[in-house]
Amino acid sequence: MILRWRRVLLGSAIAITTALTTPAWAQQKVLRVGMGADISGLDPHRASLTTDKGPVGWMFNGLVRFPPGSANPDEIEPDLAESWTSSDNGTKWVFKLRKDVKFHGDWGVVTADDVVYSLTRAKDPKRSTFSAAYSAFMKIEAVDPLTVSIELEHPVPGFLGLVANYHGGNIVSKKAAEAKGADFGKAPIGTGPFRFVEYVTQQHAIFEKHEGYFRGAPKIDRIEYRFIPSEASRELAFSSGELDLSWGRREQRWIQRWSKQEGSVVDVFQPGEYRTVHLNTTMAPLTDRRVREAVAHAINVNEIVAFVGADVGPKGCSVVPSGYLGEDCSAGTYDYDLKKAKSLLTEAGFPNGVTIKSVVSNSNAQLPIMQVIQGQLAKAGIKLDMQVVDHPTYQELSRKDASGMVFYGAARFPVADTFLSEFFHSSAIVGTSTAITNFSHCAVADKQIEAARSEGDPKKQLASWADAQRLIHQEVCAVPLFNLMQVFLRSDKLDYGYKLTGALNLVPPITERTELKK
Amino acid sequence: MTAYVIRRLLLAIPTLLMMLTLIFVLVRLVPGDPAITILGDQATEQALSNLRIELGLDQPIYVQYLDFVIKAVTGDFGRSLFTGRTVFEEVLLVLPYTLELAAASVLLAALLGLPLGIVAALYRNLWPDYMSRVVSMIGLSLPSFVTGILLLLAFAVNLGWLPVISKSTGSLAGHLLSLILPTLTLGITMMALIARVARSSMLTVLNEDYIRTAKAKGVRSARLIRKHALRNAMIPVVTVIGLYFGTLIGNSVLTEIVFSRPGLGKLIVGALNSRDYTMLQGLMVVFAAFVIAVNVITDIAYGFVDPRVKLS
């Protein structure tokens, strides 16, 4: 009898405690996402880390958008703008906005002023990381409350990508951005299907559905975006059902292992981060084109691709990543040919081989590949003297010209101009006042890159880009390796509501249609 | 005692100042540009340069140092270069998690380690002693990240009793449940250490003349251990607990990573990776202050454990 009463009392106590301590949202549809790092900020015009870009994509819209699940510029469709027109030469664009699109919270509806403010902000280097891409934006004007006109200095390749839901194209609330100033990234206001709720350092960011979303209220009520740096812990959390979506490892064996697990789905999608070895043409012995060519012929790209895995790292054939508008492989690739490599070295006056210095990041995505390359080069008598440092040090030293060979991975807007301008135009040479990431000091294709940038005729534009790639190939400024795809692991209960083949923000979009099925 | 505490705190000021200077110089000697970390690799040199000016990184080092020291004296450690929040705000956000984990681990370690060490000493070279030594050796040999993963596999994945990732939202019960495994992970090592120190300290005390005298006078065994042996054997144990508690912030970083818990250790590693100078400086001050405070508390605790110890 006493035992029964004890049980009743214990049961009641547990029930009361649970009722008191279980929050209301516990009954909601909560999507739990596990990422490998903390976010640095959620200002769409500043967000450059993968962990930042994902949530930015859930909170913001552009004038136009990449359909969810696509990274193909040819499929761009209306977003905040319901229609647009452009002048014949592509230098004047007029966008008609949708009516009554609500910002999150009490920040009103989207007007042309918000669009003008946002694009002007994206162009300002003091407030935007992506200002360089907007340098041709000459005039951005509100014609009326629902019409925006943009005048360009010259036609811009892939212009619609600059006003899409990606990087600087995201539209912010003018009132909110002005009111919050530098703190806008801590509590951003957009128009997307999810609104920012809370951020706890090292722990999580919380987003809730935007009831007034113009495409309809999302099916998911809340997103818990968890920062879990340990990959083992992320996997264990996924296995125990504590995560629905998790950052994956970009490795073939990992993908195969998880694809076989019941209840899990592995998504491999574009854009890949294109891995290239840049050869510093101003650092001896790489000043000699024959030595650079020897290096290119001593690197066995097929072996590297086999090491990474063909599904996750398909081989590249040009310095412009595969699938980008303007990619041209007509120059061919550097065949793996040790004999040729050795004879080129001898011809260049180095019969006993050469030593090349390289600053290498200790990150998992870089060091193992560079170790493979080091082994391959050794066979041709090329000693790769690697200085292994942490990633921030690698970033800084690479920009200070401390490296003869720079291994670099990047994903950009999928148009040839982005890669050619940032990596192979002389204005982007590291160490200069306009530097970006031209580590090779390549300056042989400026004319072609510039001509393509302002060319109105798509055929001529493609021809200029092809010329540029051929020249860069001949000069051996870089050796293209492979395209490292994005990998995410999800529960089979998570239905995106679209087919995922690409996501420019590098994280699967969570839209109003995404749902968690029982 | 008050005079002692005040003196110790005053002595801490030059220590802190030296530490500040050392940290200020060291973090700037390490290559790595915070502006690139913040703006990403697509930023132009102009944008990077603007940000360096905005963050004051373009100023000469001595100007940055003086600015830092003057502000630090008034309790202003500046803003994180990375998140823009004040260092104070960031520390306050994670400090409760660190203190909670440290206190829970120390408590667990003391509750298990002390009896284990005492029993081992009392039954020297008998099976309880062997068992205790084996347990402590295992505890000391297992790295915390291995212990953490093993515990997760057993209790979270296979048995499903406890969560893998620590809950920062939700019920109090959920929060406490998610504290169990990290506490065990950190506590096991410390328990092993306490057990070893308690055993050897007890053995020394048990061989003292006054213990033999007490035994000869017929003092009962339980009283002999509690009143005479244990109190005297506690001083080295208190020292170990104090020292370990002080270094727990650094040691807990792997546990924080494995269990996805916020904490000062993880904040330090994050700040180092992103070259967040101001955050690193602020955190080092907190860390130093924490170690100094624990040392003072340990010294005071000696007086309680052994009244012969006078703080003068």
Describe this structure in words.
The complex is a heterodimer of chains A (518) and B (312). Chain A contains 15 helices and 18 strands. In chain A, helix 8 (289-298) runs antiparallel to helix 10, helix 13 packs parallel to helix 15 and helix 14 (446-453) packs antiparallel against helix 15. Chain A is α+β, with helices and mostly antiparallel strands. Chain A folds into two domains: 4-242 and 493-516, D-Maltodextrin-Binding Protein, domain 2 (3-Layer(aba) Sandwich); 272-485, Dipeptide-binding Protein, domain 3 (Roll), CATH 3.10.105.10. Chain A has helices spanning 2-21, 50-59, 112-123, 159-162, 174-180, 231-239, 252-259, 289-298, 301-308, 338-347, 367-379, 391-399, 416-424, 446-453, 458-475; strands at 30-35, 64-65, 77-78, 81-86, 92-97, 137-144, 147-152, 194-200, 204-209, 222-227, 245-247, 264-279, 354-361, 382-389, 405-410, 478-491, 494-495, 515-516. In chain A, the strands form five sheets. An eight-stranded mixed β-sheet of chain A has the order 8-9-10-1-11-16-12-15, sandwiched between helices. Chain A has a four-stranded antiparallel β-sheet with strand order 4-5-7-6, covered by helices on one side. A two-stranded antiparallel sheet of chain A has the order 2-3. With 312 residues, chain B is mainly α. In chain B, 78% of the residues lie in helices and 0% in strands. Chain B has helices at residues 2-29, 34-39, 45-55, 61-73, 87-122, 127-141, 144-158, 172-206, 209-216, 221-251, 253-258, 264-273, 277-305. The longest helix of chain B has 36 residues, at 87-122.
Describe the structure concisely:
The complex is a heterodimer of chains A (518) and B (312). Chain A is α+β, with helices and mostly antiparallel strands and 518 residues long.
N- to C-terminal separation of chain B? Answer: 7 Å
CATH superfamily of the largest domain in chain A: Periplasmic binding protein-like II
Structural class of the helix and strand makeup of chain B?
Answer: mainly alpha
Uncertain regions spanning at least 5 consecutive residues of chain A: 10-21
Number of strands of chain B: 0
Principal-axis shape of chain A = globular
Average of the residue pLDDT scores of chain A: 91
